[in-house]
Amino acid sequence: MKPFTTFDQTFKLSTFLMVIGLVYPNPKTNWIRLLLTLVLFAAFLPLGIIILLDVCRYFKQGDILEIVKHAAVAGPFFLGFAKMVLAYWSKDEWLFLINQINDDHANYNTLPEEYKKIVRDGIRKSKLMIRGWCLVLVIILLLYYGGSLLLTIYSQLFSSNPSKYMIYDINRPYMEPEARFESPFYEFITIYIMCMSVLYVINYSSYEIFMIPCINHAATKVLLFCVKIRSAMISRPEDLGRNIAEAVKFQCAFFNIIRKLDEAFGVYLGFIFLICAFQTCVCLYIISERNNTDVKFIGSIIGCMEIMFVPCYIGEKLQSLSQQSAIEIYNSAWENVQDPRVRKYVPLMIARAQDPVSIKGFSVFTFEMNLFVKTMKSAYSLYTLLKSQKH
Residue 244: what pLDDT? Predict the structure, then answer.
């Protein structure tokens, strides 16, 4: 079996996307990251101004549906830049997590095979979730581009009256709506939005595919602690104290990682809880008001569900494993240990393990499957409220 390596070598796809997404926490290149983030924001600024002018036009016309459409499409772009800023703000916590994973992987190479199987399974699950996350984002990107580009190509090749379809239906500033299909504005805005969309996908890949292995690493540490405490309780009397101390170190390291996870991702998770409900509601409203099935907004709904589902799923898994560890400690045959020094530590470990461990947004919203369900229900409730106000 191959030895466990560093985070960069273990999760090569994550590292690659984090680097090109300008979120990899390298102290030597932090100033370059900040500079390139500002350059990309400046590159996006002209599109933002065009969108703002279009929103002002629809506001004067009282066309709420078009304003809502812009919020649904442009909002995630701005969130992508916010994620880059948050990653830079939390660079110390991110670097700590990477170094912790590197140190743990080096230590895991010295553990018995029983422990290594647990670690390999955790890494395998993380890689599988990372690939699934990227695949869904690519599908969303194809849905976003596919309809408009295919319709334009088909119309230009086979229609007697060729038409053009925009990827992002945005008007040319201070001109009639039909002017948006004129050259060179149509070609310029199409290429411009395609470039920005690639950046959008990279942003939404690089952040989450770092969070996934970090949370799964914490979950693996809980499983290792459970095996460690069971092994310690049946070890030889002369090794008992040392093995219990090692198990306690595993537990303390786990809680330290949880604290760093909250510091690294808590603000972002809080924002996506609020934004996903709003974005899903808006997309449902646009689809219903247009009376057609727009694949772009269906893709946006799928994206919102994925962004909310993944942290809720791994967060609930982590919470469940943490609570299960208290039962594992109690069932570790501690009653057979005669050493009073060891016995007095058991209630303390059980009490600490019973304290619920969870991943929270804004230190308020616990990310678990129940929160995912509540978010989807809230989105539909907001949607029905908008529909009732309109009619």
Answer: 83
User: What single DSSP character describes residue 260?
Assistant: H
Q: For the chain, what is the domain count?
A: 1
Judge whether 112 lies within some domain. Answer: yes
- The arithmetic mean of pLDDT across residues 204-232, rounded, is 89
**Whether residue 391 has pLDDT greater than 60:** no
Q: Cα dist. 381→100, 280, 282, 288, 386 in Å?
A: 42, 11, 11, 14, 9
Q: H/E element holding 360? A: strand 360-361
Give the residue-averaged pLDDT of 64-71: 78
Residue 187 phi/psi, 5° resolution? -65, -40
3 is a domain residue: no
DSSP-assigned beta bridge partners for residue 362:
none
pTM to 2 decimal places: 0.88
C-beta separation of 284 from 383 below 8 A: yes
CB-CB contact of 298 with 287 (8 Å): yes
Each residue's pLDDT tens digit, 326-339: 888 888 888 888 87
The answer to the question of residue 2 being in a domain is no
Q: Which domain holds residue 26?
A: 12-390
Number of other residues whose CB lies within 10 A of the CB of residue 274: 14
Higher pLDDT: 83 or 130? It is 130
Q: Which phi and psi angles does 174 have, rounded to 5°?
A: 60, 25
Name the strand (E) or helix (H) holding 361: strand 360-361
Beta-ladder partners of 366: 360
State which H helix or E strand residue 277 sits in: helix 237-290
For the chain, give the percent of residues with pLDDT over 90. Answer: 21
Q: Is residue 58 part of a domain?
A: yes
Amino acid 63: pLDDT:
80
Q: What are phi and psi of 367, to 5 degrees?
A: -85, 105
Find where tokens 């701005």 sit: 78
